[in-house]
Design goal:
It contains twelve helices and eleven strands. By secondary structure, it is α/β, with parallel strands linked by helices.
């Protein structure tokens, strides 16, 4: 599945319409943006420690300039189409960034609590339903569910409360986030997945939502996951799709392009990375729900000009066509949010 990747999602799998303000309330944006700017300045202060890298998906070294943002350079791999930051912060700089991020602290203290109910109902409960459907489709037992990088712990808590799995464990190295998971009744191992010993093995399902785009070396992350999985177990990943609609339309202006997202894979390149790492890719889909809104907002703010057709769909007749257009993007593999489902061969 590395050359031809089927990307499709049913209308039912898309869930309810979703707005950006439900995930990050407008009245909290100003302070969040200020905290993020301070984090960026702190990262740039260590620019001498940045390192050039090859493509994180295929290892290719031939690239074209993609765009610049926040003073960082993004490249477009000429082999597989992955967009990636290079030079990028070293692992030490990345580790310091996440450990001391004012932006993450602000999200944990203000934004996640304010938006948690909406996230639970419109994002994490549908995600759990989707994961359970995959267990049924691919005949995978519902014993141990391992979530890597659970963040605030909402999905792990939904999964724990559901009783759908015998055991749910979150692997989270950041102390504040690990405590947030515990506060929600989630069992936590406060380590990186690569550093686990025998605490948690033979996972039937491993999920990592919005994680791989942040990693200095995604291939090593996948190698760290494999020993924790049962043979025949499922790995479910989600991340931005660098070839999706809002990134294609907005380029560096897309929200998915930021200082933390050093890897912007696409369906083909992510499938290639998983296959090269020893996984069997089973399914790809792009169930995003915000592409159309992001492009609409950019147009309304005068940041981009739309051709007459897109202006009709995204501006003039938004109430009539906006959500159906978003559904079309998702169903055709064109959304900038994607999922991959893979299996560790028996």
């Amino acid at each position: 599945m590395t050359d031809q990747v089927t990307v499709a999602v049913s209308e039912a799998a898309l869930g309810q319409p979703l707005s950006e303000s439900e995930l990050c309330p407008d009245d909290l944006l100003k302070e969040q943006e200020a905290a993020f700017e301070r984090d960026i300045a702190r990262m740039h202060a260590r620019a001498a420690e940045f390192v050039a890298v090859s493509c994180p998906a295929c290892g290719g070294t031939t690239y074209a300039p993609a765009f610049e943002k926040y003073g960082f350079t993004f490249c477009l791999c000429q082999s597989c189409g992955t967009i990636y930051m290079s030079p990028r912060p070293s692992e030490a700089v990345m580790g310091d960034y996440y450990a001391n991020s004012e932006n993450y602290a602000y999200w944990a203290k203000h934004i996640f609590p304010a938006s948690e109910q909406s996230r639970r109902e419109k994002i994490h409960k549908p995600w759990l339903t989707r994961v359970l459907d995959y267990c049924e489709e691919f005949q995978v037992p519902r014993g141990l569910l391992l979530e890597v990088g659970p963040g605030f712990g909402t999905f792990a808590s939904v999964a724990t409360e559901s009783g759908a799995f015998v055991r749910v464990v979150a692997v989270e190295p950041t102390p504040e986030l690990a405590q947030a998971c515990r506060d929600r009744g989630v069992e936590v191992i406060e380590k990186r997945i690569e550093d686990l010993g025998d605490e948690c093995n033979n996972a039937d399902v491993v999920v990592a939502f919005e994680v791989v785009e942040h990693l200095f070396e995604p291939r090593r992350f996948l190698e760290g996951i494999k020993p924790r999985m049962a043979r025949g177990g499922l790995l479910v990943l989600s991340c931005p799709n660098g070839q999706g609609f809002d990134i294609a339309m907005l380029g560096a202006g897309a929200l998915a392009v930021d200082a933390e997202h050093v890897n912007l894979f696409n369906p083909g390149s992510l499938a290639r990375l998983l296959a090269d790492s020893g996984f069997e890719v089973l399914k790809m889909l792009t169930p995003g729900r915000l592409d159309a809104e992001f492009v609409r907002e950019a147009a309304l703010q005068g940041k981009i000009a739309l051709d007459p057709f897109l202006r009709r769909v995204l501006v003039d007749e938004w109430d009539e066509h906006g959500w159906p257009f978003q559904q079309f993007l998702a169903q055709q593999g064109l959304s900038s949010h994607m999922w991959l489902v893979a299996r560790l061969p028996s």
